[in-house]
Amino acid sequence: MKSDGSPKLFGVCFAKNEEDIITDSVSHAAKFCDKVFIVDNASTDRTWEIVRGLDLNNLVTVCSKDFVFRDYLRLRFMETRKEELGLNNWWYIFDADEFLLDNPFDAIAQAEGEDADCIAVSVINFLLTKEEVRNAEESGRQETWRDRKYYVLYESGPVKFFKNTKYVDYGICDSIPLGLTKECSLRLPLKHYPHRSVDQLAKRVHTRYGNPEFESEYRRGTDLEHYVVDQTTIPELRCCEEERGLDSKGDFGRILPRIGESVRDRANAVTIRTLHRLWLLSALYAFYRRYAAWCQNVDIKNEPNFEKTS
Hints:
Distance between the termini: 27 Å
Oligomer: single chain
Number of helices: 8
Radius of gyration: 20 Å
Shape: globular
Helix content: 25-40%
Strand content: 15-25%
Low-confidence stretches: 252-260
Mean pLDDT: 84
Number of domains: 1
Number of strands: 10
């Protein structure tokens, strides 16, 4: 998928208890990434064993550590590899249950042409329905992520790609780095499979419930009935069957605000580049790191040490 002369692309994935899908998602990302880094959050299933056994030349299994997951940990890891990636190359942040639909280098080329330094995605969120659960129970068949056919154009579109420029700071308590100036006008469609079977759903809720990072998603408690949907009551639910296919056309909402309003883009770029020339940008970033850490009760001096183990 990668064309000659395109920039390098490094993928980063943090995973925990994703044994049923990790092989497919990592292998998919490895098709277009120069390197794929995997950090395991002390999985209690076979996730780490499976990842370490994958025969992929561009896969780097970093470590398996027990830590309370926070989105900013990915940035803290990427900071340790930013010199290896090099300036003006790109990062791809992905989860173990995500698959890109389109060639990311087409979007990166468009971003470069627009002088943009980040690319967001349009999330196609696949759900587990009561009908599917009932059918699986009646048939006795083990369900997988490939069996999911009901989806919504989810109200989210986070930045998943960003450029490693001299203005970027891999700040604490943020899901994307500080210093991004412009979002590409093109968004990449991405398939997301958070709930794939009853067994996997139970494990996922158990893993994430009580973690503040997932409070909005799993505030409904540990009763699985809250997460299995009734397809007859969701008007925006679509069905992906062989005769219909997947339709990703439509309006996607955003939880995260767009960076890409033209006036705001110009203001961001001018401000960041001016502060950089005045040697004030690093001081601003240092102040913000301490402020953000204080707001979220994070000890900057006690961050995870990502050690390469293979």
